[in-house]
Amino acid sequence: MNYDPIKKDLGIVFNKFTILRKIFYSLLDLLLLRSWHIHRELKTWINNNPKALICDAGSGFGQYSYFLAKHKNHYTIDSLDVMEKQIADCNEFFGKVGLNNAKFQFADLTKPFATNKYDLILCVDVMEHILEDVDVFTNYHQALKPGAMLLISTPSDQGGSDVHEETGESFIGEHVRDGYPVAEMAEKLKTAGFEKMEILYSYGNPGKIAWKLSMKYPMQMLNASKIFFLILPFYYIITFPISYILNYFDTNATHKTGTGLIVKAWK
Question: Within 13 Å and on the Cβ side, how many CA atoms surround 198?
Answer without folding.
Answer: 6
